[in-house]
Amino acid sequence: MAEITLQDIIKPENIVYQKTKLMTDKTLSYCPGCGHGTAHRLIMEIIEELGKENETIGVAPVGCSVLAYEFMNVDMQEAAHGRAPAVATGIKRVWPDRVVFTYQGDGDLAAIGTNETIHACNRGENIVIVFINNGIYGMTGGQMAPTTLPGMRTSTSPYGREVNTMGNPLKITELVAQLPGTHYVTRQAVHTPSAVRKAKRALKKAFENQISKKPGLSFVEIVSNCNSGWKMEPVESNIWMEENMFPYYNLGDIKVDGQLIEKK
Hints:
- By secondary structure, the protein is of the alpha/beta class.
- The protein has a single domain, classed as Thiamin diphosphate (ThDP)-binding fold, Pyr/PP domains (Rossmann fold), CATH 3.40.50.970.
- It is built from eleven helices and eight strands.
- An eight-stranded mixed sheet has the order 2-1-3-4-6-5-7-8, with helices on both faces.
- Helix 2 packs across helix 9.
- It is globular and about 75 Å long.
- The chain starts with 5 loop residues before the first helix and ends with a strand.
């Protein structure tokens, strides 16, 4: 009997999954269990499947998202904290045939960058905004973010977020869905295989909207964990996210083809 080699096994018909060529070979430096790596992979898989790797420009600002340019093997531009939508707007207007996206965290997009986010959405810029919401400032020390839940402990709210003095969590995705310039607004997650598949379909729709020049901006929120900032093990943090984040930040489409989805 002939010896079976690795080359005999690794044939196109036997491959179930293959890493996209649009992820660099650099080892991910995110905390183990973090959702950023999965979100990166999905975006790059979609760009490769759409055949737009040579026409895509990503914009990443400050925060954990700033590392995206080390792992995404497409043209990337860094932006000042909160200013990614403005930078993406400029790129898209200069090169309207480029596929342009931003990759932002909640402290960036919904705090220092609230102005840029709202106005880019209201103008209906033909870009994709990818918003990672983990309810905390992950990179800079675990401080309270605009998306931190009531009662949630952070380094700057050690006894929990007190709504009377610290305000309510900001549902920025529902907010931008009300603006006439948004075409597609959705909230997804990447913590299970099923959630990953749904998130990929949503992200692909967002990029296809831009490529086909559908009028308006596509906004994809991904609710994720921050097990380091939350002081939890990865599995525990996913359970906590399901039990606490999802009831407040409901998953699913909010606006499709410019029309708000009625919740039953």
